[in-house]
Amino acid sequence: MKDLQSWEDAGEIELYYFDESGFSQRSNLPYGWSPVGKPTQMKSYPHNKRLNVLGFMSRRQKLIFHATEERVDSAKVVALFNKLAESKDPLKPAVVLLDNASMHRSAEFRRHRLDWMDKGIWPIYLPKYSPELNLIEILWRKVKYSWLPLDSYETFDRLRESVNDILSKFGQEYKINFV
């Protein structure tokens, strides 16, 4: 991993961390404060929609993402990898670190590996059960626990707009220090 990051720092490769995450109106806020005697109440949404987000993130604050209300499957993962193939620097290899989710190991996903490698995209699997090595997990945590305003949970449309707005502004208004 350190070698890959060194090669990225030297400008020899593009290094991306790939993963999926889900957002719903069920708040992810683990705790909160309110004045004594005036508890803050939030509406609960037990049966709600889910916004699924797939993304490639680099330590250089670059993010390529796709948000959908549909179920995420191998076809959606393949489509986003194809989008990366279209947008990456053709002269520089792109290494993509990803977890061992079934949709990343499916026959459909594997069928595209040689095409991606021909286009300079090298998917590499992280060790099983090691989400701490996938830096995009930090992005998902920041969005859910720090950057999403509380009023984002009032309607699903507002949640979708807020998530898309934050992710679209990642690298400009929203940054992560990976030091």
Explain what the structure shows:
By secondary structure, this protein is α/β, with parallel strands linked by helices. The chain has one domain: Ribonuclease H-like superfamily/Ribonuclease H (Nucleotidyltransferase, domain 5, 2-Layer Sandwich). Helices cover 35% and strands 20% of the residues. Helix 2 runs parallel beside helix 4. The protein is globular, with a radius of gyration of 18 Å. The two termini are 14 Å apart. The relative contact order is 0.19.
Question: What descriptors fit this protein?
Answer:
Transpos_IS630-like; globular; alpha/beta; Tc1-like_DDE_dom; 6 helices
Provide a quick synopsis of the model.
This protein has 179 residues and is an alpha/beta fold.
CATH superfamily annotation: Ribonuclease H-like superfamily/Ribonuclease H
Shape call = globular
- Helix-strand makeup class: alpha/beta
Helix-residue proportion? 25-40%
Radius of gyration (CA) equals 18 Å
Please mark out the parts with pLDDT under 50 across 5 or more consecutive residues, or reply none.
none
What CATH calls the topology is: Nucleotidyltransferase, domain 5
- Strands, total number: 5
Mean pLDDT: 92
Report the end-to-end length measured between terminal Cα atoms: 14 Å
CATH architecture: 2-Layer Sandwich
Question: Biggest β-sheet, characterized?
Answer: 5 strands, mixed
**SSE pattern:** HEEEHEHHEHH
Please state how the strands of the largest beta sheet are arranged side by side: 3-2-1-4-5
Give the SSE layout.
Elements: H1 2-9, E1 14-24, E2 50-57, E3 63-68, H2 74-87, E4 94-98, H3 102-105, H4 107-118, E5 121-125, H5 136-147, H6 156-168
Parallel strand pairs: 1-4, 4-5
Antiparallel strand pairs: 1-2, 2-3
Helix pairs in contact: 2-4
